[in-house]
Amino acid sequence: MRSRQPLIPYLIWMVIFVIVPLGFVVYYTFTNENGSFTFENFQYVGKYASTYVYSLRLALVATLICLLMAYPFAMILSRSHAKVQTMMMLLIMIPMWINFIIRINAIAFVLEENGIINKAITVLGGKPLKLIHTDFAVVLGMVYNYFPFMLLPIYTVMAKIDKSLYEASADLGGNGWQTLRRVTLPLSIPGVITGITMVFVPAASTNIIAGYLGHTKMIGDIIETTFKTEVNYNVGSTLSLVLMLIILIAMVVMNHFDQDKDGAMLL
Amino acid sequence: MKSIKGEKNEKILSILCVISLFFTLFACVSSESDKLESPIYTGEKLSGTLRICNLGEYISVGIDRETVDIIKLFEEETGIDVIYTTVDNNESMYAKLTSGTVNYDVIITSDYMIERLIAENHLASFDAASLSNYGNIADRFKNLEYDPTNSYSAPYFWGTVGIIYNTKYVTAEEAKSWNVLWDQKYRGKVLMYDNPRDAFAVAQKLLGYSINTTDETEIRASADKLKKGNFIYVADQIFAKIPAENAYLGVCYAGDYLTMLADNEDLAFSIPAEGTNVFTDAMCITAKSSCKELAQFFINYMLDAQIGKINAEYVGYATPNTASMALLDESITSNTAIYPDNVDEMVANKNWERMFHLPTATIRLMSELLTEVRSK
Fold first, then answer.
1. What ipTM was predicted for this assembly?
2. Cα distance from N-terminal residue to C-terminal residue, chain A
3. Residue A175 domain-assigned?
4. Which of A63, A143, B296, B362 is 20 to 30 A off residue A111, Cα-Cα?
5. Which chain A residue lies closest to B187 (C-alpha atoms)?
6. Quick check: B86 and B118 in contact, CB under 8 A?
7. Which pLDDT does position A263 carry in this prediction?
8. Using a CB-CB distance cutoff of 8 angstroms, which residues of chain B are in contact with residue A117?
9. Domain ranges, residue A108
C-alpha cells in the first residue's frame, strides 16, 4: 500500500489530462452533431485516405533520414572527449531554444523562389530551382526540426554503454563491424526506438510544416481546419482517432523489434 | 580566500547588471496618453474587467514612440482592465465563442459571422444609436443586411478583396480581371487564400455566380475552376511572399495591401471588373457578457474620431467613421484601393457582394472541395 500512495497525484493527472480527453475524442467519434450514435464520421477517413498515406509516407522518410544521420553521429559523439560532447550537445540544443514557427519560417526564406539558395544559383548563371512548396521542403523541415529528438535518446543510451565492452570485443578479436553489430547495435536499440517514436509521431501529425513549406495539406492540417474552420468536432475527432490508431499500430509493430522491452513503455 | 571573494563580487555585480537592464526596459515604456494631443476620455475612473476578442493584427498596438496601443490607452484613461485575445479567423472565433468555455464581452468579427451569431442568439442587443459617437458612422454602413436594425453591432472597418500585384511583372491592364491568376505566365507565382469562402468567391465572381450561392453545380464548377489554377495557398505568409517578390500577385484584402506597400513600393492593388466581396467588420456584445454597460462604453470609445484615425492609420483598412476620415491624411483617404469611390454603385448592381452566412452543408462542401483542389 505504501508504495502506491506516491502514485496517486500522477494517476489523477493522467485521468484528467489523458483519459478524460481521450474519452471525449472517442465520444465525438461515434456521435453526430446532435449527440446520437453513428458510424457516419468514418466515411471522411475514406475521403482523406490519400492524405493519410501521404502524411505517413513523408513522416517515414523524415524519420529514416533522421535515423541515418543521428546514429553514426551519436556513436562518434559518445566516444569523443567530454568537452567535445558538451559543446556538440549545446550546438544541437541552441536552435531548439528558438521558436518552432520562426525556425520553419527561416527554412521557408532559405528555400523561397528568391531565397539564398536560388539567388546563389542565379548569380552563378543557373536556373532557379523549385525548392519551396515541394515534398522535399516538407521533409527537410521535419528533419531539421525533429533531428535532436532522434539524436538525444540514441546518444544517451550510447553514452551509458560500458567502454570495457568495446575492449572485451576487441580482445576477443572482434573487428569494428562486428563490435557495432554485436555490441553497440543491440545495446542502443531502446534509444533508437525512442528516437523513432519521438520523430515519427510529431512528424506524421504536424499541422504547421506543410502550411509553410508544402504544396498540399497533411492530415494534421486537415484535422486543424475541421476543428477550427468547419467547427466539426465529430469528424475532427474521428480523423485524429484514426491517425492515433495508425501510429499506435506502427509503434506496437516496432516495439516488437526491441527484445529488451525497455522501449515498450514509451508508447 | 581572496579569489572566492572576488568571484562573489563578480556574481553580485552581474546580478545588479541584469536588474538594472530590466529597469531600463521599464523606463523606456512611456504612458500611452502622452502620445495623444488631447485625451479621449476625461471622466472619472471606472472599474471592471472587459474581455475582448478580435481578429489578429487588427488593432493599433504601440510598436514605437509614434503608434498608440489603443487597448493600453483605454485602460490608462478609464481604469478598466482589458483581457485582449485574438483569433486567426471568424470561424475560430465562432468555435471559441460557442464552445461555452470562454467568455468574451466584446467581439470584433465579420458581417456574415455576425448574421450567424444573431440567428443563433449568441449576441446581446444594444441601442447603437444611443452611443454618443455613433453619429460618426457613415449612413451607408448602417442598416446593412447582417444587422438590419443596428441592434447588435457597430461598424469597425470595411474593405474589399482584390488582387495585389507587383508592377515589375504584372501590368495594370492584366490585373483588371481575376483571369490573370490563371495566366500560364505566372504559374507558381500566384497566392490564393487558404480559406474556402475567400477562395471560392474569386472563382464564383469569375464564373458569374453569386458568392453566396448554395447551388451545388455552381460550387462544383467553381472548384473545377480553382483546380485549373496553379496557386500557392497561404494565409499570413502573403505578408512575407509578396514584398520579397517570391510571388508576383495574389488575392488580398485591401487593407493588407497598404501594409505590404510599406515594404515594397512596386506593389499595386486592383479590384477586378468581374466583381468582388465587400465586407464590414463590426463590434458586438456577447449574450453572455456580464458587463454589457462597460462593453457599450468600450464600443463608444472605439467610435471616437481620434481613436478611429489612429486605428485606421495603423491597420490600413478603411474606416466607416466619417469623423475619423476627416482627420486622416489626404493621401490615405484619396487612395481608391482603400476608399473606392464607386462603392454604392457597385453594391447596388450586385457586382460587389456582401458575404452572407450559408447553410452548414454548403460550407462543408466548399471546405471539402478546397482540400480536394489543394491535394490534386
1. 0.81
2. 27
3. no
4. A63
5. A130
6. no
7. 45
8. none
9. 41-152+196-266
Using the Cβ of B246 and the Cβ atoms of chain A, whether some distance falls under 8 Å is answered with yes
Question: In this structure, which amino acid lies at residue B61?
Answer: V
State the total domains in chain A.
1
Assess contact for B60 and B74: CB atoms under 8 A: no
Residue in chain A closest to B91 (alpha carbons) equals A229
Distance from the Cα of B75 to chain A's closest Cα (Å) equals: 30
The alpha-carbon gap from A231 to the nearest alpha carbon of chain B, in Å, equals 6
Alpha helices in A79-162 (DSSP H): 82-93, 100-111, 116-123, 135-160
Summarize the confidence of residues B287-313 as an average pLDDT.
96
A160 assigned to some structural domain = no
Residue B103 near residue B94 (C-beta atoms within 8 A): no
What residue has cell string 475527432? A237
CA–CA separation, B204 and B222 (whole Å): 6
Q: Read off the CATH number of the domain in which A62 is found.
A: 1.10.3720.10
pLDDT tens-place string over residues B11-67: 776 777 677 666 665 555 567 888 888 889 988 999 999 999 999 889 999 888 888
Residue B299 to residue B48: CA distance in whole angstroms = 15
Q: Is B363–A230 a contact, with Cβ atoms under 8 angstroms apart?
A: yes
* Type and span of the H or E element at A69: helix A49-78
Interface of B with A in 59-118 (CB under 8 A): 88-89, 91-92, 94-95, 98
A185-205 helix and A135-160 helix, angle to the nearest 10 degrees? 150
Alpha helices (H) along B176-261: 196-206, 216-228, 238-241, 254-261
Residue type, A194: T
Rounded CA separation A248/A266 (Å): 11
- The minimum CA-CA distance between A34 and chain B, rounded to whole Å, is 14
Average pLDDT over chain A, rounded to an integer: 90
> Are the beta carbons of A229 and B371 separated by less than 8 Å?
no
- What's the longest Cα–Cα distance across chain A? 75
* Gap between the Cα atoms of A143 and B254, Å rounded: 38
Nearest to A222 among B95, B247, B371 (CB): B371
- Whether the CB-CB separation of B246 and B188 falls below 8 Å is answered with no
Query: Taking the model in full, what pTM does it have?
Result: 0.85
> Three-state DSSP class for B60?
coil
pLDDT digit string, tens, across residues A214-256: 998 899 999 998 888 888 899 999 999 999 999 999 888 888 8
